[in-house]
Design a protein that fits this description.
There is one protein chain. The chain is mainly beta and 330 residues long. It has one domain: TolB, C-terminal domain (Neuraminidase), CATH 2.120.10. The chain is 7% helix and 40% strand. Helix 1 packs antiparallel against helix 2. The longest helix has 15 residues.
């Protein structure tokens, strides 16, 4: 099986050049899964999870879908803080969201989340919480989708710059929007860029967004199986295929990039195996691949959301398997 995937990857590499060759060669897996790490609240099942991040104290935050696939009529908490041993410290956000999706923290530990669908007067918003769960700001209008500068249509991911600027990946495919929206720390709209399409700088299904140490904006365009890199004002700098079909992107302080590929298969992204790819945001090299779990490569289960602590411990938010996973170095 490994030889089959290496051969397929080498075909892709021949078409794409050096960066793809590095992708093809990066089959080492230096990690192991720490099974049963997260200790979920007693008496409730854990639902699909796609948002995860780590605060400055090393605690892990996750955005969960009410013990199910969505939070349609649920009052259950959706935002959880775990300590490094996997114990729940606190939870909040019950009754506020339709389809919990993206989560990110700023330098002060404030929690930003995106609600990627609309239902019963909920959804299509980005909400900022204090670390204690107090609502500090809401961008968009709950339950209202739109294309204006004060509305979203299925926002999928969010990240926050060191100066407090808020970057939102607005659009989750289908008939949703397909743009990046940027707001000041106080919520004032600053600019947007991108639109629907399959050409350079266009988006089909935005699913992840991250910033590197230079302030470049990395957008996971899952529908086009590309990471698209922009400067802070929206000028396209590069497009990378070597990290697969991106569902989640995390870039640490040293510009190590972690990318989850939970959808590649022979039809949607031939030549790429599902898994978590680890590499460099500086030069696009791919150093390692943590493969998904499952008997068939095209059906392997892989987290969508991803974060990593300074020591390289990885946390994955899994939607299909409804889990919060921890990967440690072998």
């Amino acid at each position: 099986m490994k030889r089959k995937w290496l051969n397929a990857a080498m075909i892709v590499a021949a078409a794409l050049g050096t960066a793809a060759v590095q992708h093809a060669a990066a089959q080492d897996n230096p990690y192991r899964l720490e099974a049963g790490w997260a200790k979920y609240p007693a008496g409730r099942s854990w639902g699909s999870t796609s948002g995860v991040d780590i605060d400055r104290n090393g605690n892990i935050w996750a955005f969960e879908r009410c013990g199910a696939r969505d939070c349609a009529d649920s009052k259950l908490a959706t935002i959880f803080e775990f300590d490094r041993s996997g114990n729940v410290i606190q939870s909040f956000g019950g009754g506020m969201f339709a389809f919990p999706h993206g989560l990110a923290l700023d330098r002060e530990g404030n929690v930003y989340v995106t609600d990627a669908e609309g239902n019963n007067g909920k959804g299509h918003v980005v909400v900022k919480f204090s670390p204690q769960g107090k609502v500090l700001m809401t961008l968009g209008r709950p339950g209202v989708a739109g294309v204006t500068n004060d509305l979203f249509n299925r926002p999928s991911a969010v990240t926050v710059a060191p100066n407090g600027d808020i970057y939102v990946a607005d659009g989750h495919g289908g008939d949703s929007n397909a743009r990046v929206m940027v707001f000041a720390k106080d919520g004032k709209f600053l600019r947007s860029f991108g639109h629907k399409g399959r050409g350079r700088g266009e988006f089909d299904e935005l699913h992840a967004i991250a910033l590197d140490s230079r302030g470049r904006v990395f957008v996971g365009d899952r529908g086009n199986s590309l990471i698209k890199i922009f400067d802070a004002t929206g000028n396209l700098l590069d497009e990378w295929k070597q990290f697969g079909r991106p569902s989640g992107i995390y870039i640490d302080a040293a510009d190590t990039i972690y990318v989850t590929d939970s959808q590649s298969d022979a039809k949607r992204n031939p030549g790429f195996r599902r898994g978590i790819r680890i590499g460099s945001a500086k030069d696009g090299s791919v150093r390692a691949l943590i493969p998904g779990v499952g008997a068939e490569p095209d059906k392997e289960s892989v987290p969508e959301g991803i974060a990593a602590d300074p020591s390289g411990v990885i946390y994955g938010a899994e939607t299909s398997g409804s889990n919060l996973l921890k990967y440690v170095k072998k």
